Amino acid sequence: MFRTSVVPAAGGRPGWIAVGLLAGVLTAAASHAQTPPTTTQTPTPTPSPPPQQATAQKSPYVFAGDGAVILNFVKPDKTADFELVMGKVKEALSKSEKPERKQQAASWKVFKANEPGPGGSVIYVMIMDPAVKGTSYSVGDILSEAFPSEVQALYKSYSEAYGQPSQNILNLNLVSSLVK
To answer: Could you tell me the residue range of the domain that residue 154 belongs to?
Structure first.
């Protein structure tokens, strides 16, 4: 029997696990899109669920974990629209009198990836660390509170900026902190 030595690839098993996890997240067929804000002026384009179903469904934008990550896949020609709306979200959070909105503003960061996403999309990564538990991170909800007369136009620009898939949402629980 002959033995040959095998040199492990850089990163070894943990590196391959991370690559596999990232590839799975980026290519996931199931994606989430935020529901538009509801106002009395304009009906929502899709029928509303009956009241008993509405209370049973939990918003994917209310986090129960220690942190959260949202991967946003934006059409390349709509990045300015997306960034404009996120600027309005920042403004809404900073001018809010609600303490939970102030906490969100302090821990919510938005990054733009250098690498292209599926179909040439631009990936924006939102990191909430720590997440404000039990508080909605829905862009529509936040814009509705601060800009009730502008919310429909802002949300239209925001929702039309998304490609396919539109978003992947990850609720995170802290396993280990490497901070001293």
So the answer is: 62-174
144-173 per-position pLDDT tens digit: 999 999 999 999 999 999 999 999 999 999
The CATH number of residue 162's host domain is 3.30.70.100
Domain count, the chain: 1
CA distance linking residue 72 with residue 163, whole number of Å: 9
How far apart are the C-alpha atoms of 38 and 138, rounded to whole Å? 12
Complete edge-to-edge strand list for the sheet that includes strand 122-128: 108-116, 122-128, 67-74, 162-172
Compute the distance between CA of residue 73 and CA of residue 26 in angstroms, rounded to an integer: 9
pTM, full prediction: 0.70
Q: Is residue 69 part of a domain?
A: yes
| Rounded alpha-carbon distances, angstroms, from residue 66 to 96, 109, 113 | 23, 15, 23
Provide φ and ψ at 71, rounded to 5°.
-95, 120
Q: Which residue has the tokens 């980026």?
A: 26
Residue 23 covered by a domain: no
- DSSP annotation string for 35-103: PPPP-SSS--SSPPPPHHHHHHSPPTTB--SSEEEEEEEE-GGGHHHHHHHHHHHHHHHHH---HHHHH
- Domain membership of residue 76 (yes or no) is yes
Whether 42 maps to a domain, the answer reads no
